[in-house]
Amino acid sequence: MTTTNFKYSVGPWNVHEGADAFGPEVRSSIPVDAKLRKFKEIGFTGVQFHDDDAVPDINDLSEDAIKVRARELKQELDGLGLEAEFVAPRLWLDDRTIDGGFTSNSAEDREFAIWRAKRSIDIAKELGTDRLVLWLAREGTLCAESKDPVLGLQRLREAANEILAYDPTIRILIEPKPNEPIDRSFVPTVGHVLGFAAGTNDPNRVGALLESAHAVLAGLEPSLELGFCLSQGKLWGVHLNDQNGLRYDQDKSFGVENLRSAFNQVKVLMDNGYGKNGEYVGLDVKAMRTQSIESSYAHLENSLKMVRLMEAKVRKFNTELVDRYRAARDYEAIEMYVMELLLGEQ
Ligand code: GLO
Ligand code: MG
Fold this sequence. Notes:
Layout: E1 8-10, H1 32-42, E2 46-50, H2 51-54, H3 63-80, E3 83-88, H4 107-127, E4 131-135, E5 140-141, H5 149-166, E6 171-175, E7 184-185, H6 190-198, E8 206-211, H7 212-217, H8 222-231, E9 235-240, H9 259-271, E10 281-283, H10 298-316, H11 319-327, H12 331-342
Parallel strand pairs: 1-2, 1-10, 2-3, 4-6, 6-8, 8-9, 9-10
Antiparallel strand pairs: 5-7
The structure holds D-glucose (GLO) and magnesium ion.
Magnesium ion (MG) binds at residues 135, 175, 211, 239, 284.
């Protein structure tokens, strides 16, 4: 049984100004409402939001004012025929997140992180989604001895429990990443996420969002990481993209580095009915720094096209033939069949 009607999502940060660690912005900013209109035009129906994408200047607003602004955004989304997929507190830009949020050594910083997570929930409720994504950007160490790993995980659990207690319907999707911007993460893979989830006060409301590039950075195969979460009923979001091995985090367009892995990622999603509970096929891709402002959306269009091309390949996949090869243990034949399928020779 294969899924054929995926819904696709993207975040405003995926259209960005091109700054990297060694150079400043190279493209001018595009206002969020213009991005939203374009997303819809390209074929996305879901939008991923950081808390401050949804409500700019969030730190300067009262809790009520934040909700009012979120309500306005909801109207705008309704008008455009778009849905909010999730809200994620941005816990890596502010001075109070220099040492991380939930696991910072400073109690004040940890309090700030919880405040932002709660505001993110308020925004999510206004936007009509029950998904809170936690990309644990700085929850780990730059200097191995700067934090006790056990205490770090305990603090993270306390934070998760406080979030779960704040709203009885919110679900937490942890997006693991092994490194960058930190050296070592406390929750580097989806296996860690699910182990961590089991120790919270409501494991049924803690799941995973798998990003392809993050799995590659951990030296793992994204399609198997997806399969691991699917086998546990815990794959609640994905960030499809690509990554050329163990380099800086690249967020390349989906499939441009490893076609076979891209095929297997889409296959495992389709074969296991991903999307049947309203899950989105989300992208998290960056335009290359060398792109002009006029081609600010090409990486999104290309990634979406790649996902759809892979969907077509998966539909074409000859299961009966492969089953015969499996029974005969002729895995060389399977390998060549897949190569030919991907190269259009089948
Ligand atoms: C960075 C992450 C980041 C998150 C986003 C949503 O490596 O992939 O882009 O996905 O902030 O939480
Ligand atoms: Mg991501």
